[in-house]
């Protein structure tokens, strides 16, 4: 690993995990990830910002040796999750005089999850600051990005914000700074979709707060550093906004093609009405990709046959995921096919209580859909069109 200077006295000392394939078993990682950690050297004191995932301690400590740190006064724990605090126990052994700085809730989590001695921890209240000499650390409490204890650290002299997971991206890449590539944008969007989306209203608030600081650099805890943060700020504004796009997402599963034929008919009907549509066969689709489309979708249609009196488990899984991600969609519907009876439509609806969407009339048919049944699909397409029109989307 290498130590890379961001600004005089401020360097990146984290590690790149090129080969990781999944995170939290919640999302697949097509491009690996990084565990970013930083050092801030003031004229009098030195602080480390976050650490790395346990198991990467050796690479991390090698970086600290290469950064030639004589001593460390503070270790700032913006976020207690183990991918950023995993190396903290080792670091506290290495620097016995160092004090950990975190929020009150961060203290509780670090003590319980990493068995850190609470006497080593200094609690930072919102807007508390620490003087490093010619640099200052100011702590802003920002709970729920994406745990309850999160905070960010601001260095006003350099206008750099260490934003923990906010603005993060699971992307292993050799460049330190964001290059504006579509690969980075997709990684940042996937990260937002799965990790930040449930806290959308908080994110709106925090984006405004960060913009008011007018940062020159945003250094998140995963992915590249933004030395021109306006692009990521404007993407976050767009993703967290209340306005959806002219997009219908249709995650579906079909064992014997009946539901699939209905999805195909709905897809065609929506295209004919000028609506963007993305059908996802749940047998082969990645949940991270569907989650990304949920950021933009105004309407979600779940397609499921009845299996053992209820939804197919893959459809139930996506309904559960939709419920916990709380996307901004305003309309939802269930379509599918059954043989003799069950509670699929009701169960799927009940599985999404957090979705603040109007449930449209379901299209749920017995067996193979004939032309007459497929007319109901056209009616559903008309209903969706009307609503998208009401929202000035078509
Ligand atoms: C394992 C299995 C369990 C099923 N259980 C039910 C059921 O409980 N109630 C029902 O109405 N149909 C049930 N069916 C029938 C399907 O819902 C029906 O064949 C439907 O048309 C399949 O739609 P698809 O072609 O989209 O998979 C079951 C089918 C399978 C294969």
UniProtKB/TrEMBL annotation:
Coiled coil: none annotated. GO terms for molecular function: electron transfer activity; FMN binding; metal ion binding; oxidoreductase activity. PROSITE patterns: FLAVODOXIN_LIKE. Residues 248-385 form the Flavodoxin-like domain. It comes from the Archaea. This is FprA family A-type flavoprotein. It comes from Methanogenium organophilum. The lineage of its organism: Archaea, Methanobacteriati, Methanobacteriota, Stenosarchaea group, Methanomicrobia.
């Amino acid at each position: 690993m290498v130590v890379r200077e961001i600004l005089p006295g401020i360097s990146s000392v984290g590690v790149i995990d090129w080969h990781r394939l999944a995170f939290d078993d919640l999302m697949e990682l097509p491009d690996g990830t990084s565990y970013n950690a930083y050092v801030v050297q003031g004229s009098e004191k030195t602080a480390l910002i976050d650490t790395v995932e346990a198991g990467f301690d050796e690479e991390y400590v090698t970086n600290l040796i290469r950064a030639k740190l004589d001593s460390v006064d503070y270790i700032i724990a913006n976020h207690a999750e183990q991918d950023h605090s995993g190396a903290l126990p080792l670091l506290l052994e290495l620097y016995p005089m160092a004090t950990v700085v975190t929020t009150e809730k961060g203290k509780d989590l670090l003590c319980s999850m990493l068995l850190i001695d609470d006497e080593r921890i200094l609690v930072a209240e919102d807007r508390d600051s620490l003087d490093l000499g010619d640099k200052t650390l100011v702590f802003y409490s920002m709970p729920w990005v994406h745990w309850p204890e999160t905070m960010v650290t601001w260095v006003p002299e350099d206008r750099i914000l260490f934003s923990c997971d906010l603005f993060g991206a699971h992307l292993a890449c050799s460049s330190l700074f964001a290059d504006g590539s579509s690969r980075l944008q997709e990684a940042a969007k996937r990260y937002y979709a799965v990790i930040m989306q449930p806290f959308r209203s908080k994110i709106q608030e925090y984006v405004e707060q960060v913009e008011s600081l007018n940062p020159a650099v945003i250094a998140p805890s995963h992915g590249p550093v933004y030395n021109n943060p306006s692009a990521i700020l404007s993407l976050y504004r767009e993703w967290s906004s209340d306005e959806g796009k002219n997009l219908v997402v249709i995650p579906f599963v079909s064992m014997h093609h009946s539901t699939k034929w209905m999805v195909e008919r709905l897809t065609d009907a929506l295209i004919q009405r000028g609506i963007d549509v993305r059908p996802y066969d749940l047998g082969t689709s990645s949940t991270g990709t569907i989650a990304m489309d949920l950021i933009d979708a105004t309407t979600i249609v779940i397609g499921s046959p009845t299996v053992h009196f209820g939804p197919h488990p893959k459809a139930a899984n996506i309904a559960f995921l939709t419920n916990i991600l709380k996307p901004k969609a305003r309309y939802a519907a269930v379509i599918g096919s059954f043989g003799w009876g069950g509670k699929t439509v009701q169960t799927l609806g009940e599985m999404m209580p957090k979705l603040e969407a109007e449930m449209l009339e379901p299209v749920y048919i017995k067996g193979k859909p004939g032309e007459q049944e497929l007319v109901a699909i056209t009616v559903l397409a008309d209903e969706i069109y009307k609503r998208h029109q009401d929202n000035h989307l078509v």
